[in-house]
Amino acid sequence: MKTFARLALVAALTTTTAVAAFAQDAGMEKKDSYRFVIIPKVVHPWFDKVNNGAQQAAKVIEAQTGSKVQIDYSAPQQADVVQQNQILESSIATRPDGIAIDLLDANGNRASLEEAVGQEIPVTIFDSVPPEGMELTSIGNDFCEQAEIASKRLVELLGAEGGEVAIMMGVPSAPNHAIRADCHKKVFEASPNIKIVATGIDNDDIETAQKQAAAIMQANPNLKGWVASDAAGPIGIGQAIKEAGKTGQVKLVGLDDLPEMIELIKDGTADSSSSTKPEMQGYWSVMTMWQKAMGIDTPKYIDTGIAVLTPDSVK
């Protein structure tokens, strides 16, 4: 793992140096300072990891170019598109060198995003997909594949007997959560011995997920398994499974790699997890904003990949 981290850093430094050299050769004027805004869905430990990656990118750019890089991290207190748009519009008014945002609602965010683009502020979408028709660079992973890894694993765990399962939906309007939930459903619907008996909505909040999961398990005593569409969901589900004394009886296949999720795998409450790479998403969000700020074209999509966490890998 340490060797991989060193190689990744070398590659990142090489990329940064190459971009800086390209900009100089092309006659682009390097700024003495840049300010980039990161707007997540909500206050959440997963997004703290995104911010960590963004701060790492800022240090790399500073080290390679001498330009000062400021990261303004501004999260809505609740997963509310109105609050998120208020932050986005306030950020636009300050004329930053770039904005990276994880969309709560592609349609609800569109007007504010169009305003930013109209004012020629570079915009990057992370952990989501852009609104239809908007040519914005997006950074993330194959959300459907990530869900399929989890739901297919749950089907495998339940075996020929199958049984009743439930899905925690996250924020239903969020593009990545909606994609995952839909792909979970398709896997289960294609499995004749699996029956979806309930769905919960936690709005990416652990406490809400715990309460929803507890209520669903009480209403469905024969429930055999859970999957989730967001990072908070499986942590709350795991807490509810423990409190109900159903560890081992109700199977949980999680999502993402927060410390609480890893502990649930270690103690046997969860079987495994399919994880995004939030630090990498934050890192490349800053890198793409920086390149756009210099007038350099960026890819339409950057896939940061999926990590599968198992009891062996989390040791």
Q: Can you lay out the helices and strands and say which pair or pack?
A:
Blueprint: H1 2-25, E1 33-39, H2 45-65, E2 68-73, H3 81-93, E3 98-101, H4 106-118, E4 123-126, E5 137-140, H5 143-158, E6 163-168, H6 175-189, E7 194-200, H7 206-219, E8 223-228, H8 232-243, E9 251-255, H9 259-266, E10 272-275, H10 278-293, E11 301-303, E12 307-309
Parallel strand pairs: 1-2, 1-3, 3-4, 4-5, 5-11, 6-7, 6-8, 8-9, 9-10
Antiparallel strand pairs: 10-12
3D architecture notes:
- 48% of the residues lie in helices and 19% in strands.
- It has 315 residues and is an alpha/beta fold.
- Helix 2 links the parallel strand 1 and strand 2.
- It starts with a helix and ends in a 6-residue tail after the last strand.
- Residues 1-10 have low confidence and may be disordered.
Strand content: 15-25%
What's the alpha carbon Rg, rounded to whole Å? 21 Å
In oligomeric terms, what are we looking at?
A: single chain
CATH topology of the largest domain: Rossmann fold
One letter per element, helices H and strands E, the order comes to HEHEHEHEEHEHEHEHEHEHEE
Full CATH superfamily name of the largest domain: Response regulator
The pLDDT mean sits at 93
The spatial strand order of the largest sheet comes to: 2-1-3-4-5-11
**Span between N and C termini?**
13 Å
Proportion in helices: 40-55%
Detail the poorly predicted runs. Answer: 1-10
